């Protein structure tokens, strides 16, 4: 994940002087303080922490009140966990004007935790070992609507799709394309998006859209859900 | 039942049996008993042969039936326990089978009958006067009470031997029989008092009282039972938590001590912290029984890669992130691949460790096993490595090729080195 520092210029958001408003949800006060300090230390003023919460109810109150662009969400929370926060803020995620996006930030890298919050609608997953620079980059990328995958997460996804290799009902929706698999495999091997782009002779944007496609396929398992998803985003 | 349970401690010298329980309290013996275990328990307590005690009881019984009453009193008041002599009975060697409880042998039945007769004799002797008619109802009540008490006794013993939880009709039947006996006894007394004509109404009234009491006490009883089971559940959970905490605290404290001692050596501190983190993760996030025994020989590809990574990480203090996709059992060729992968990890940790974590990716897809090891160090040119340095050439490339696989070594796009190892598995293992 240290490689994602290489992408710092790629997103370019900070250079434009844009500010991303962030809410921190974690039940450990020490950790919240640490993240605040870390973000400040990167010397980039692009990320502003506008609120903090320690449990599910608090999180919903703070998120509704501040309407941040990105929520850094811990997976294990008192009151139902990160999944519960995601479930109860589905409307805010689907809001077309100012969508709230979630980036899961957890110490746990157990498959069920990771896949759980991704299915819940989080746009990415990073572990707490991430450096401040990488975290800021991840926040920017998520606020742009892209997905952030850690190598482990890519591994889980590959694993999950590999184990259901039996032909699904809706093949084109349920399975990853060859290209998406390739991208995931490179992420799992620790390559940054930029490096993947170079290796596959595609643009970084294409890599990001592949990754987003993977995320979409992970959340939605059939056409029915896709229709609902598209409707929620006013795409149809 | 007027005979008080004798307090026979301290009058006699302790038995020479070295296996005697440390607390010398009188218990009835659960092992190898004929009837209630009274004689055996007493013998164990007094340090006398069982037969002596039995003879004394029989003698007392023959005298005027006192023995029976005494025995009954003991049975009633003395709790069941492990006080008996010779409780390492061959039948219970396995610790599983106990006592002739399910099929009472003839001796036990005989003893029970004898006891009943004895009690009857005693009762008839003492209550010969005005209340002769009450003897049998009282006896019935006594038998009923004894049955119910014995029921409690049995379930206690079952709990004590952790053999409980077995639901059966027998306990319920026994309890019901006890209640029935008591009921008949009480009815008998009522009848004997000459109020036969009131029997119906008396029964109705008693029934009403019983139902009333049940209604009043029922909710309390239910709540008490629920509280009890809840409390038991909490206790089990607490025990489990304590077990995990004990293990975790131990190892964490150990690591913290080591870290304090090595505070001036950041590499060592980092190594200790990583090792501790790995162990904690194994405890917290891995499925039951996984990742706990690091010493065991790995049997599958993912396990082997993880184990190698952990060991290299420990040896070189460089964090190694492992992503494993799919899994399959190891064979000879895959063993060689794992060795090569380990060598690649060692190289990456040694020469590329400054650039951050080493990333290891292992994938089993269909028949292909692929391992990539990547570092972000300065990178190195294979052709520039002196001929006499056999690490890469022999341990990685040579080993893979000898076993029918391929190894590629190249520089990663943003600096660093990537080692890619690929191996085909024989087709017969496809199903796994």
**How many E-type strands of chain A?**
5
Helix content of chain B: 55-70%
Classify the beta-strand content of chain B into a percent band. 5-15%
Say how many strands of chain B there are. 7
SSE topology sketch:
The complex is a heterodimer of chains A (236) and B (432).
Chain A: H1 8-11, E1 20-25, H2 29-41, E2 47-53, H3 56-66, E3 70-73, H4 81-88, H5 90-94, E4 101-106, H6 111-120, E5 124-127, H7 132-143, H8 151-163, H9 171-174, H10 178-188, H11 193-200, H12 204-219, H13 223-232
Parallel strand pairs in A: 1-2, 1-3, 3-4, 4-5
Helix pairs in contact in A: 2-7, 3-4, 8-10, 10-12, 11-12
Chain B: E1 28-29, H1 38-46, H2 50-64, H3 66-77, E2 80-81, H4 106-126, H5 135-160, H6 169-192, H7 199-261, H8 266-285, H9 301-316, E3 320-325, H10 332-352, E4 358-365, E5 368-375, H11 391-402, E6 406-411, E7 417-424
Parallel strand pairs in B: 1-2, 3-4
Antiparallel strand pairs in B: 4-5, 5-7, 6-7
Helix pairs in contact in B: 1-2, 2-3, 3-4, 5-6, 7-8, 8-9, 9-10, 10-11
In short:
The complex is a heterodimer of chains A (236) and B (432). Chain A is 53% helix and 11% strand.
């Amino acid at each position: 994940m240290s490689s994602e520092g290489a992408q710092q210029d790629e997103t370019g958001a900070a250079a434009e002087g844009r500010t991303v408003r962030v809410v921190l949800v974690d039940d450990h006060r020490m950790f919240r303080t640490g993240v605040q300090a870390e973000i400040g230390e990167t010397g980039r003023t692009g990320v502003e922490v506008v609120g903090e919460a320690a449990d599910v109810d608090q999180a919903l109150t703070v998120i509704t009140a501040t309407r941040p662009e990105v929520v850094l969400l811990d997976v294990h929370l008192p009151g139902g966990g990160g999944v519960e926060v995601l479930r109860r803020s589905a409307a805010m995620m689907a809001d077309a004007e100012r969508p709230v996006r979630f980036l899961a930030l957890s110490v746990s890298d157990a498959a069920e935790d990771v896949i759980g919050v991704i299915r819940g609608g989080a746009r990415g997953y990073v572990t707490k070992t991430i450096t401040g620079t990488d975290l800021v980059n991840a926040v920017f990328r998520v606020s742009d609507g892209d997905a952030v995958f850690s190598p482990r997460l890519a591994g889980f996804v590959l694993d999950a799709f590999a184990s259901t290799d039996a032909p699904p009902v809706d093949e084109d929706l349920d399975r990853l394309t060859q290209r998406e698999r390739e991208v995931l495999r490179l992420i799992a091997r620790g390559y940054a998006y930029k490096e993947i782009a170079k290796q596959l002779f595609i643009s970084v944007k294409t890599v990001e859209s592949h990754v987003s496609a993977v995320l979409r396929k992970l959340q939605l398992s059939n056409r029915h859900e896709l229709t609902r998803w598209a409707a929620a985003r006013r795409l149809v | 039942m007027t005979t008080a349970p004798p307090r026979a401690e301290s009058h006699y010298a302790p038995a020479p049996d070295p296996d005697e329980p440390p607390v010398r309290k009188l218990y009835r013996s659960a092992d190898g008993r004929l009837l209630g275990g009274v004689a055996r328990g007493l013998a164990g307590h007094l340090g006398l042969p069982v037969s002596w005690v039995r003879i004394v009881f029989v003698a007392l019984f023959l005298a005027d039936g006192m023995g029976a009453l005494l025995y009954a009193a003991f049975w009633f008041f003395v709790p069941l326990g492990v006080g008996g002599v010779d409780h390492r009975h061959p039948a219970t060697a396995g610790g599983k089978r106990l006592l002739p409880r399910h099929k009472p042998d003839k001796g036990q039945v005989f003893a029970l009958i004898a006891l009943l007769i004895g009690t009857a004799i005693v009762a008839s002797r003492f209550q010969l006067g005005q209340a002769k008619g009450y003897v049998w109802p009282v006896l019935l009540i006594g038998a009923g009470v004894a049955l119910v008490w014995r029921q409690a006794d049995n379930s206690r013993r079952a709990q004590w031997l952790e053999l409980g939880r077995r639901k059966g009709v027998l306990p319920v039947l026994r309890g019901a029989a006890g209640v029935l006996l008591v009921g008949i006894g009480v009815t008998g007394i009522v009848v004997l008092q000459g109020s036969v004509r009131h029997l119906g109404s008396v029964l109705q009234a008693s029934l009403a009282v019983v139902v009333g009491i049940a209604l009043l006490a029922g909710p309390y009883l239910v709540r008490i039972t629920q509280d009890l089971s809840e409390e038991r559940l909490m206790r089990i959970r607490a025990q489990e938590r304590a077990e995990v905490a004990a293990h975790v605290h131990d190892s964490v404290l150990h690591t913290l001590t080591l870290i304090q001692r090595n505070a001036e050596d950041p590499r060592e501190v980092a190594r200790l912290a990583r090792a501790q983190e790995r162990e904690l993760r194994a405890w917290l996030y891995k499925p039951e029984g996984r990742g706990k025994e690091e010493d065991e020989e790995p049997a599958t590809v993912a396990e082997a890669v993880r184990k190698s990574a952990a060991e290299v990480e420990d040896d070189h203090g460089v964090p190694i992130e492992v992503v494993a996709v799919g899994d399959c059992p190891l064979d000879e060729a895959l063993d060689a691949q794992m060795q090569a992968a380990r060598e690649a990890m060692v190289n990456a940790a040694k020469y590329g460790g400054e650039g951050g974590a080493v990333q290891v990716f292992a994938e089993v897809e269909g028949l292909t096993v692929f391992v990539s090891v990547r570092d972000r160090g300065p990178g190195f040119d294979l052709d520039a490595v002196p001929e006499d340095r056999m690490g890469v050439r022999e341990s990685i490339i040579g080993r893979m090729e000898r076993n029918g696989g391929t190894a590629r070594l190249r520089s990663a796009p943003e600096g660093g080195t990537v080692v890619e190892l690929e191996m085909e598995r024989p087709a017969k293992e496809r199903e796994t």
